[in-house]
Amino acid sequence: MAAHLHVLGICGTFMGGLAAIAREAGFRVTGCDANVYPPMSEQLAALGIDLVEGYGAEQLSLRPDLWVVGNVVTRGNPLMEAILDRGDRYVSGPQWLSEQALRGRHVLAVAGTHGKTSTASMLAWILEHAGRRPGFLIGGMPSNFGVSARLGQGRAFVIEADEYDTAFFDKRSKFVHYPARTAILNNLEFDHADIFVDLAAIERQFHHFVRIIPHQGKILMNGRDDALERVLTKGCWTPVERFGIENGWQSVPADDGFDVRLEGRSLGRVRWTQPGEYNRMNALAAIGAARHAGVDPAEAISALGQFKGVRRRMEKRGEVRGVAVHDDFAHHPTAIRVTLEGLRALAAGGRILAVLEPRSNTMKQGVMKDQLAASLAGADRVFVYGGGLGWDPAAALRPLGDKARCYEKLEPLVAAVAAEARPGDHVLVMSNGAFGGIHDKLLAALGR
Q1: Sheet containing 50-53, strands listed edge to edge, beginning at the edge strand earlier in sequence
Q2: How far is it, in rounded angstroms, from Cα 116 to Cα 358?
Q3: 43 contacts 148 by C-beta, under 8 angstroms
Q4: Across-strand partners of 219?
Q5: Quick one: pLDDT at residue 363?
Q6: Alpha-carbon dihedral angle through residues 231, 236, 242, 244, given to the nearest 10 degrees
Q7: Is there a contact between 342 and 275 (Cβ–Cβ < 8 Å)?
Q8: Which of 39, 117, 415, 422 is the most buried if burial means most Cβ atoms within 10 Å?
Q9: DSSP H or E run through 372
Q10: Neighbours of 311 (CB within 10 A)
């Protein structure tokens, strides 16, 4: 009889992906969570994984062989307290994944403050296109696959390597559990103010990750990032290739995409419609990482020409009366700025109406509030949802003048955006959560 896992926090992107992999590997999987919303809820339903709402101690009656605990679970959680009292076996999600799915694989890990999901999706697609049948666990839904995770049949496994902590009983970053042979270091900025006191603390965790990459491995690193350079000065035992610089991997924009160069030598042209320099940087990292896994750059370039993007990464949700509504996961000021720059390149002269929910733990604490106005300066109009914040977004956005408005409730915000929008406009919704289903509400309001 298959071993039974019960996953706590199963609707998070990581834990939900882990559940999918466990199911594919032959385990019996159930799980619980407090909040459920797409796309993970849809993926779990499609897999036939039974879900319990909440964390009630009565779930002890399920008597699984192992409890797999996500980092959303804290002391005081009723189910976790009952597990501890009974002395049941439990393990963190990253440790379970490392032991059960990554051992013996060529792990390609994508780390960085920004771009992990898009880069990991590109890399997984390149390997798939090259016939490698990779496994992957990605913090979003790559449109080329339609699922965020799978065990895979080949040796390669692509994982989004997060610096957030592992569990309430293991405060190391998740990525130290992943035995990476190929590692991408995309960028490094201060984030996750709820667990890190400063940038130096995050750099220390990144160096813990660098310390476990083997000598025969490869690091693909953003050559423009000073924080990553500081990480390597603490010690590096692995060959490094840099991207985004002239003597490394470089992109040269073209009308239909961009040319790829390595140390000044042209390798081919990626023909695609993905916006922005940030996506070109992501692509360079993916091409370099795939090369270390044995995929010729020409094959990788061809694959990226068929890359369809990622759900919630500049995803067009609909268009009504000439007004397009886009969805994006951006929530850090840098991500907000580059997302706006990418959309501006596609907007064909139309206005951009930015709609932001500052929902991340870092944003809720107000740590980045002084950077917010500058990050939104590229929009023509700004609408911010300030419900539940412990700081005043209107004060933070004062440098933007009349083009920025703040709302404490969702309905007036939706009405204001719909009233402002005109044909040719692009509405860009940015949040790392469900944002109260605002996308459908906006499309409906525009239709009225």
Answers
A1: 50-53, 28-33, 4-8, 66-69, 90-92
A2: 20
A3: yes
A4: 183, 240
A5: 67
A6: 0
A7: yes
A8: 117
A9: helix 369-375
A10: 19
